[in-house]
Design a protein that fits this description.
single chain, 172 residues, 72% helix, mainly alpha
Length: 172
């Protein structure tokens, strides 16, 4: 492994933490097991706590998904800074293409661009500069002013892609 072995392990640890946060989605289903505890369930219903709990979980997920993506890409940037001598993230990613291949590099650029949309674009809309970046990296499926919608499945997939990318860099 390169000299950034400790940074790689730190990156992987942070990605694992991000995935654990996604497990909050399972809390949406907590109301089902509560039905077995009839008395407590009736009290929760009477106090209207279940809808409030579900609403809170939904709001937390809506806030957490973009933050998890931003956090994870920032962690990747920090890890790559120990392996590649470039200052810009997109250049670091490009420098790794010969190690990971064009397809994975393109996917990492897509995740990076989504992070940029989250950070820099009002209402998480694809702006002209984002669209140009997608086109530059031959990434399709995005339109001008499109609102970036993230699902837990999308974010899990992106975390897995980031992990795969970092593993291939660390093992080469």
């Amino acid at each position: 492994m390169p000299s950034g072995k400790g940074k790689y392990e730190d990156f992987m640890s942070k990605i694992n933490h991000a995935e654990k946060i996604l497990d909050i989605i399972e809390l949406r289903e907590l109301s089902t097991p509560l039905s077995k505890l009839r008395k407590k369930f009736l009290l929760l219903q009477e106090l209207r706590l279940i809808p409030r709990m579900r609403s809170l979980v939904e709001q937390t997920i809506d806030i957490a998904l973009p933050l998890l993506l931003v956090f994870s890409v920032s962690c990747l940037e920090h890890f790559l800074s120990t392996c590649v001598r470039k200052k810009k993230l997109y250049k670091m990613i490009d420098d790794c293409e010969f190690k990971v291949g064009k397809r994975l590099t393109r996917k990492i650029h897509e995740i990076r661009i989504k992070r940029n949309i989250i950070i820099h674009s009002p209402e998480q809309r694809t702006e002209k500069r984002n669209l140009n970046d997608f086109i530059l990296h031959q990434i399709t499926g995005y339109k001008l002013n499109q609102i970036l919608k993230l699902t837990p499945e999308d974010v899990k997939s992106d975390l897995n892609t980031l992990r795969k990318f970092a593993e291939q860099i660390a093992l080469s």
